[in-house]
Amino acid sequence: xxxxxxxxxxxxxxxxxxxxxxxxxxxxxxxxxxxxxxxxxxxxxxxxxxxxxxxxxxxxxxxxxxxxxxxxxxxxxxxxxxxxxxxxxxxxxxxxxxxxxxxxxxxxxxxxxxxxxxxxxxxxxxxxxxxxxxxxxxxxxxxxxxxxxxxxxxx
Length: 155
Description:
Number of strands: 8
Order of helices and strands: EHHHEHEEEEHEE
Number of helices: 5
Strand content: 25-35%
Shape: elongated
Distance between the termini: 7 Å
C-alpha cells in the first residue's frame, strides 16, 4: 500500500490568510477604528510558539518572549504583541504604536510566508524522522509552487 502526502506551497497558503485580510482593514481604518482593532487583536494561524520565535528571529526586529503565550515585537514600523490564553489556541496579534502602516503590513505578510515555510519544513522533517521500518519514501517531488509530494510505501 502507498500513501501520498502533500505539503502545500507556502505561497498558496499565504494567499488565503485571515490576518492578511484583516491587515487591509488596518491600512484603511480611521484612528478610532484602529484603536478598536488594536484592542480586539487580529486572528492569526500561528500556533507553534517555537516556530513563531524562530521566524521572527529572521527579521530586523526586537523580540521579547514573556512566555509560551506572549511575545512582544518592536519594529521601526510599529509594535506587535502576540498573545493567547493557552497553548492549544493560535496567537492573536495586537498592534501598538503604528508609525508606518504600509511597511508594517508588508512585514507581517513576509512573516506569514516565512512562518508557513517553517511549518512546511518542520512537517517534512518530522515525517522523514518518524518513518518506521516498514515505511519507505518511494517518490519525492517538489512542484513549481514549492508544494512537496511524498509517496510513502507501507509494507
